[in-house]
Structure formats: C-alpha cells, structure tokens
Amino acid sequence: MQLSFVNALLRPRAHLGLRASRTLSTVSCPPVNLPGRTVAKSCFAFEVNGSPFRYPWLYQRCYSVVAQQKPAVIRSLENRFFSANASHAAETSQLPVLAQPAVGRWLLFSSALVFAVIVVGGVTRLTESGLSITEWKPITGIIPPMNAEEWNVEFEKYKTTPEFKLLNHSITLDEFKNIFYMEWGHRVLGRVIGLTFVIPLVYFRLRKKLNPSMHFQLTGMTLLIAGQGALGWYMVKSGLENSIMDTPGAVPRVSQYRLAAHLGTAVVLYAGMLGTGLAVIKDWRYANGGPWSGSRTMNWRDMLSNPVGKKFLRLSKGLTALVFLTALSGAFVAGLDAGLLYNEFPLMGGRLAPPLNELFSSAYAKNADGSDVWWRNIFENPTTVQFDHRVLAMTTYISTCLLFAYSRRPAIRALLPPLARTSVTAAFAMANVQVLLGLATLLYLVPVPIAAAHQAGSIALLSTMVHLLVSLRRPSLAAQAWRKAGMRAKNPGV
Asked: Model-level pTM?
C-alpha cells in the first residue's frame, strides 16, 4: 500500500501550528509487526492519523526517505520558515536578561512609599513627636499599646526623658497618644517599605527577572533600608540622653548631624529607586522598538556624542547634586530650629548677611586654639545654618532658571529629546513653587503644613532632575541587544 508520508507525517496539529501538505509523493515501507497482527508500515501510518510522534522509530526511519523525495517548493518553504525561526530562537536564548515592566513598577511603588515616609518623618519632626517612643523594638514594636495599662507604661517611660522634664511636663495622656501615634506611624511605614521591597526582590531574583547590572544596585538599596532603621534609632537616642539636663539653656532635640544622615540616606534611597524604576520601563520600551526618550527620529548616540549634549548632561548632573545638597542643608535647619530666626526675606536683621562675628562666633569652638570655629559654626550655629540654606536655595533656583533658559535655545532644543525638554520645564516650575513654599515657611514662623509641603517640594524637585537624567541616559546594553535582535527578526536581510 502506498501513502503520502508528507501528508501523514506533517498532518496539522493544533499545538504545532503547521499547515497540512498535499504532496503526492509516495513511498513503500516493509511490514511492521504489532501485537496480534502484521500490517504494512504505510498502512499503519495511514491508520494512526493522530500525532506522528507517537512512535518515534517510525518517524525516524521514514523521515529521511520523505526528505529526499520532497518537492522543491516544500524545501524552499521549509528553509524560509524553520531556519529563520531556529536562528532567531538561538539568538534570543543568548541575549542577556532584560528586566520587565513589572520590575520597574515595583521600584516606582517602593519609591512612592519612601517619598511618603520622608514627608511623614518631616511632620514627626515638626510636631516634636520623634522622642515619644523611648525604645526600639523592630519586631514587637509594630503593635501599639492596646489598653490603659500599656498606655500608662509607655507614658511613664516618656516622663523620664529630658523632653518631658524641660518642655512637656504638663502634657496629658491623650496628648501623649497623639505624638506617640505620629512616631509609631513613621516607624511602621518604614517596616512596610522593607517588606514590600525585600519580598518582591527575592521573587524577581529567583525567577531571574533582573538585569545583571541591577543586582549590585538592589543590594545597596536593601542595605540602605536595613540601615535606615538602625540610623533612625541612633538619631532618636541622641535626643534621649540625660546629659542635656546639665547644659544651661539647652533644648531637647536630636543631633542635627544624625538627622541629616537619616534624611540624606532616605533621599539617596528614593532617588535610586525612582531612577532605576524609570530606567527599567524606558529600556523595555526601547528594546521592543519604542522611541528613545519620546523621539523616534533622534539617535541617542548622536545626542550623547555631541559636545553640546555632553555639556548639557554635565550641567544637569551638577544641578541634581546641588538640589540634593540644598535639601540636606534643610535637615540642619530643622535640627537646630534655625527657621525660627530672622523671619524676613531677603534681608537678615536689616542687611543681606548677619555680622561676621555672628556667623562665625567663637562661642561654638571647642578646641582651645579655636581651630574648629569655622566648620562648627557652619553646622552648629543656627544663624549660619539658615544663611547657608538661603544661599544654597537661591543658587539652586537661579541655576534651574539658567538651565531652563539654556534648554530653550534653538540649537539645544533641537538636540534634546522630548522627555528631556519636558523634565527641564517641570524642574523650572517646581523650583518656583519650592521658593514660594520656602518663603512662606520662613515668614509665617514654620507652620507645620507649609513646612511639610516645603520638604516634600524639595523631593519633588529632585524627582524632576532624576527624570531628566534618566531621559538623557543611554539604553542599557541588554536593551540595545534585544532591540537589535528584534530588528533582525523583522528584517532578516538587515
């Protein structure tokens, strides 16, 4: 019995997606011994019209014969389909891992939580709630007092602190609960950030969803999160020390150095999460044939190799560092309550700058020879700290305006991608809002809502600069490799 093996062996299967071939080539095979009967191999192949791979030996023995007798049209179609897809599959298997948008969205969500904890921390500082919890319990501290007895125990602990003895000696239990819950909420939010970051990180690593270059960055973020809890408690301890009781005129407050370190690491963590998350999403779009920074006509190599483009990128990085430094100086202003001095602008005591002997007072020097008078006044003198913050803030504002004006030049505007131009405009707008918030905070003696908005505004301004830098970055090597592979798959001749 004769049978078309092309029709039998290449019968269409739903899971293979193959189209049946109606070739009339035939071949005869010797009989096949099966249990209970003997049939011709060709007849057996005709009867078993299911998967041709049910009996592999049958397929292997007859395929060579079929391959030799296939018409030229079949051979040409097979070469065009199977060889192209095989080479593309082999090339794809050798490509580096490219993080998916889910990774980017997770990082952006984590950065939003860090943004929230920074704002809550600012409110905690402004309401003087940070010293209400006198112990650090990373695990059991997540549960607040649940009954009157437990509240009385916490209140008695607070009564032993210098803040209660010097400032809040008349506070009631209900008033204590208000400041307690503010600090407790700040600590709980920090724990939530740790869980929502570490658990997905472990999942993405086990599933190999992360770029090779991301492992070092995400490990650093994990260490920053873990260190933030310890650093926060280290900061709080500085305000609980009884040695302050022996200093005449001293006010119970945390160390401005530790406060700046606590805020600075949180801002670095936020910027890292935001920048990495944005980069992951933009790389994914670029790898799948999307535009670079919103432009389908611009080539990132041309922009980043252009001397003017390099200069603009350097200016953007410098302004980003200046924004961070200004925000960090605000931590010293908050730590020393320097915002309660010289509540006027642009003058300070009727002049552009306070007297030199007030800016660099010898009273702050601790060395006998006075060699530390300069740096101690810069970090410990409230008058000098506020003056420094004013200078940095105005420098940041003027620099942002200049960068915005520079980006509006026709030559620069034609060189920058659309998303970069949008980021510069957003930074300029946010800088104006931030100046207004800063002036309102100063002139109205640091009201809590405006001061908290001012701190949030500094992080928002930093966010626009981070987005600007991401818009000007070159796509990752993984994204470039995937884009090239995709282009070759669509245009095999290229």
From this structure: 0.81
